[in-house]
Predict the 3D structure of the following.
Amino acid sequence: MSNLKNILSLILFSIFLISYLLKLLILYKKNHIKGNVLAKGNKRSMIHYTELFVKTTTFVWGAAWFTFSLAESYIVTLVGEHFNHPAIHFIGVGVVTLGCSIFIQAMIAMRTSWRVGIDKSTVTKLITHGIYKFSRNAAFVGFDLMFLGLYLMYPNSLTLIIFFLNIVAIHLLILQEEQHLKSVFGDEYIQYCNNTPRYILF
C-alpha cells in the first residue's frame, strides 16, 4: 500500500510540475510574457520579502514532496511519523489530487493574466469567470489543499511545519495582492470581493 501511495504521489507531483512549467513556457513563447515575477523587479520591501518567503517555503514543500515520494522509508527513520493509517494517507492522495486539479483549472481560467507573484510592470484583465466565480484565489486554494495533502500522505513534524509555513506565506501574499488589485481595478475589484469569497466559503 505504501508503494502505491508513493507512486501516486510521484505521478501527482509530476503532473503539478509539468503543468506549471508548461503554463510559464506557453506564456513566454506565445505571448512574450514572463509569468514568474516572484521576488523579481522593483517592488516595495514588504511585497518583496513576502514573495521571497513564498518562494522559499514552496520550494521546500516541492522538494519534500518529491523526496518523500522517492525515499519515504529512509526519511521516516530520520524524522519519524505522527501516525500510520493507510486510509488517511490515501485521503491525502485525494486531497492533493483535488488541489492539483483546482490549481490547473485556475491556470487555464487565467489565460494570459496568469502570474506567479505581483506583476507591477503590466496591466492584466481581472478574471472572474470559471473557477474564479467561486474563489478570488482559486490557485492558492489549490496550493493550500496540496500542502495539507502532503501532511496527510506523510504525517510527520517536518511536513506539518511545511504545511503551516506555506499556509501563512500564501495568506500574506494574498493580502499583498488584494491591495495591488484594488489599486489597479478599483471599484470593479471591490465589487468582485463583495460577491466572491477570498478562499471558498470565506
Remarks:
- DSSP finds six helices and no strands in the chain.
- The mean pLDDT is 96.
- Residues 45-79 form the longest helix (35 residues).
